[in-house]
Design goal:
By secondary structure, the chain is α+β, with helices and mostly antiparallel strands. It is built from six helices and four strands, in the order H-E-E-H-H-E-H-H-E-H. A four-stranded mixed beta sheet has the order 3-2-1-4. It starts with a helix and ends in a 6-residue tail after the last helix. One of its GO terms (molecular function) is hydrolase activity, acting on ester bonds.
């Protein structure tokens, strides 16, 4: 039952996993990892032989240069705004982009795929990444970058960045210590 709850929680409207390397009081995030569907897909479908793609006008018209980047939006995605607000990076690149360096991957990527879902059949019908495939890509990333993370005790994986009561409680406990009883 806990596994099902965790998977459903992962596939909420958008789920963003932040990797935090400093104590909670500092809120100094070093990386952002994004899982989900078209609401946060930053262009992974551009590198898949699938139907859902955002590579034509009007997609991207509000981005620098007005060029479609694979985002199912006229501009930035919510994950881009969050990454920028946390001073991680301006845009979260798609994991499948072929020219990402290890350093770029370490600062964060997007695993989301438009049309993807919890059910494997959903992704297989349209040839997009299902949630389990996104998680497989994340596991691959962890193995690829393991040589850069010398002390894993410094890293905390936090999946409460999406709007839930748990995230409000977490933030309130650190931001408003004096105000809480």
């Amino acid at each position: 039952m806990a596994l099902i709850f965790y998977i459903v929680r992962l596939m909420s409207l958008f789920t963003i996993t932040l990797v935090k390397s400093n104590p909670p009081e500092n809120f100094n995030f070093s990386s952002i990892l994004v899982f989900g569907d078209s609401s946060v897909d930053s262009g992974n479908n551009q590198y898949l032989p699938c139907l859902p793609k955002a590579n034509s006008w009007p997609y991207g018209i509000d981005l620098p240069g007005g060029i479609a980047t694979g985002r199912f939006s006229n501009g930035r995605l919510v994950s881009d705004f969050i990454a920028n607000a946390l001073n991680i990076k301006e845009f979260v690149p798609p994991f499948l982009y072929p020219n990402l360096s290890d350093e770029e991957l370490l600062r964060g990527v997007c695993f989301a795929s438009a049309g993807g879902g919890i059910d494997e059949i959903t992704g297989s019908l349209t040839k997009v990444l299902s949630l389990s495939q996104q998680i497989d890509h994340f596991k691959y990333l962890c193995n690829r970058l393991s040589h850069l993370c010398d002390d894993r005790s410094k890293y905390v994986f936090w999946d409460n960045a999406h709007l839930t009561q748990a995230s409000y409680n977490y933030l309130a406990s650190y931001l408003f210590k004096e105000a809480l009883p």
